[in-house]
């Protein structure tokens, strides 16, 4: 199984890049892993928030394969414990999924079509974080879940 991190927005800022690279490398000991940064539409500044989310959704839906398992990070999604996240990853791997995609939407969230397409909507926190930090937190949490699956000592419950 391949774990894919997709994020709408610009390249990793220097202040989080190193951390993202560290956790991505650690995850790669367990699963193939890849980051895909999805550039916002060229005319983003001239679009309404709704139209921007629609345009981003068009791009994302075209990138997804019908067999991909999609976990969209959404403020209204279900909050998971680290153990529940590990269970989700293990279940997905056990079901022979080829790709598990974690999606961080654009600045205004994701279009309803993305929510409908998603297999899971995950509310990372009740707090609001900058997208750059969400990437780092996501990478760390996926690494933590991998260590839980393998019963390694990184996670202390």
Main sheet properties: 5 strands, parallel
Low-confidence stretches: none
What level of helicity do the residues show?
Answer: 40-55%
Order of the strands making up the biggest sheet? 2-1-4-3-5
Strand content: 15-25%
The helix count comes to 5
- Output the structural class: alpha/beta
Could you say what the CATH architecture is? Answer: 3-Layer(aba) Sandwich
- Overall geometry comes to globular
Mean pLDDT level: 94
Describe it for me?
This protein is of the alpha/beta class and 157 residues long. It has one domain (2-149): SPOUT methyltransferase, trefoil knot domain (Alpha/beta knot, 3-Layer(aba) Sandwich), CATH 3.40.1280. The protein has helices at residues 14-27, 49-63, 82-94, 112-117, 131-149, and strands spanning 2-8, 32-38, 69-78, 99-104, 120-122. Strands 2-1-4-3-5 form a 5-stranded parallel beta sheet, with helices on both faces. β1 (2-8), α1 (14-27) and β2 (32-38) form a beta-alpha-beta unit. The protein is globular, with a radius of gyration of 15 Å.
Keywords:
157 residues; alpha/beta; Alpha/beta knot; 5 helices; 5 strands; 21% strand
Provide a short characterization of the protein structure:
The chain has 157 residues and is α/β, with parallel strands linked by helices. It has helices at residues 14-27, 49-63, 82-94, 112-117, 131-149, and strands at 2-8, 32-38, 69-78, 99-104, 120-122.
